[in-house]
Write a structure and sequence with these properties.
Number of domains: 2
Shape: globular
Structural class: alpha/beta
CATH superfamily of the largest domain: Spore Coat Polysaccharide Biosynthesis Protein SpsA, Chain A
Largest sheet: 9 strands, mixed
Oligomer: single chain
CATH architecture of the largest domain: Alpha-Beta Complex
Radius of gyration: 20 Å
Strand content: 15-25%
Helix content: 40-55%
Distance between the termini: 55 Å
Order of helices and strands: EHEHEHEEHEEHEHHEHHHHH
CATH topology of the largest domain: Spore Coat Polysaccharide Biosynthesis Protein SpsA, Chain A
Number of helices: 12
Length: 326
């Protein structure tokens, strides 16, 4: 088996058929699709069963709802392919996605292949480019390259999501890479651990091979409000992984800078009352625990983000915040 695709499925009836059809139409046909039904309450399971009855490459694992991270870990246990593709059930894919990424992986003996993606607006049907999934200015000149070849800001090189990447299964298993089993930000630890540990990475920066469906709605915002601590847990777990691998000294500056960046992004995208809760946590506790406090301005790559961090440390939340224009 060339590729094992692991796909968590939870109440995805509106888009599941489109996603599966785009996979069954791949030009690379030697793959297995492991669908982990994560306690769906809609018609997702019957949809999966109808496809599995027609195509032997599709395997269904049904479990009680435990979230996408747990579902991905569960699916990985059944994977047999040389490479792993870890996808979402509402996205859809170019027909050459698996073939292009797999061929690049073989050509370069890659641990990770990353390719381009874009966004599909589910409300308007419009496509828009994703300009930040690969920061080309941070890519080393050599091909392939190791994580330690990235000169600075490695955690900004790629976004910490898994669905625009192909991973060598033996590499994942040897390094015991796992997804965090939490409500949100459950793939960052897996992806960034893989990136820093990889010895051979290749980037297909010009190839848009998958389309990430963007949805808006109350359910998504409520999930973020309830899980506002998950990003912090992910950062702590990533730092511990770097320490365990004796890589923290090498990547400490990158980690601190990313901690500021990711903390500000989470802060500025939260509504009240969790915005104030996070502001105070960062100011009074979390920035210190993440190792941000005590560095001079020259330590930070992004001067604007450093200014926002300084503002939080100096000013109480009732004065104002980056999200409120203070």
């Amino acid at each position: 088996m060339k590729v094992s695709i692991v796909m968590p499925v939870y109440d995805s009836e509106d888009f599941l058929a489109d996603s599966i059809e785009s996979l069954l139409g791949q030009t690379l046909t030697d793959f297995e699709l492991i669908c982990v039904n994560d306690g769906s309450t809609d018609s997702s399971l019957p949809i999966l069963e109808s496809y599995a009855a027609k195509d032997s490459r599709i395997r269904i694992i049904t479990r009680e709802n435990a979230g996408a991270g747990a579902a991905r870990n569960n699916g990985l246990q059944y994977a047999t392919g040389t490479y792993l593709s870890i996808l979402d059930a509402d996205d859809f894919y170019e027909p050459t996605m698996l073939e292009c990424s797999y061929n690049a992986a073989l050509t370069y003996g890659a641990d990770i292949v990353t390719f381009g993606c874009d966004f599909y607006d589910n409300n308007t049907g419009a496509y828009s480019p994703c300009t930040y999934s690969i920061h080309k200015n941070l890519l080393p000149k050599q091909r392939p390259f190791a994580g330690t070849d990235v000169e600075k800001d490695i955690f900004k090189l790629y976004v910490g999501w898994a669905w625009d990447k192909l991973f060598k299964r033996s590499f994942v298993e040897e390094n015991q890479l796992q997804f965090q089993e939490q409500r949100t930000t459950n793939d960052m630890l897996f992806v960034f651990s893989a990136v820093v540990k990889a010895q051979r990475m290749i980037t297909l920066e010009e190839d848009v091979l998958m389309h990430h469906r963007k949805q808006t709605g109350v359910g998504l915002s409520v999930t973020r409000e309830r899980s506002w601590m998950c990003f912090y847990n992910a950062l702590l777990a990533l730092r511990q992984q770097l320490i365990d691998w004796n890589l923290y000294d090498r990547f400490e500056k990158d980690f601190v800078n990313y901690s500021v960046h990711f903390s500000l992004w989470n802060l500025n995208t939260l509504a009240e009352p969790t915005h104030t809760l996070l502001y105070n946590k960062l100011r009074n506790e979390w920035f210190k625990k993440l190792g941000v406090v005590g560095h001079t301005a020259g330590y930070f790559y992004n001067k604007y983000e450093f200014g926002e961090y300084e503002k939080i440390m100096k000013l109480p939340v009732d004065w104002g915040s980056p999200a409120k224009g203070g």
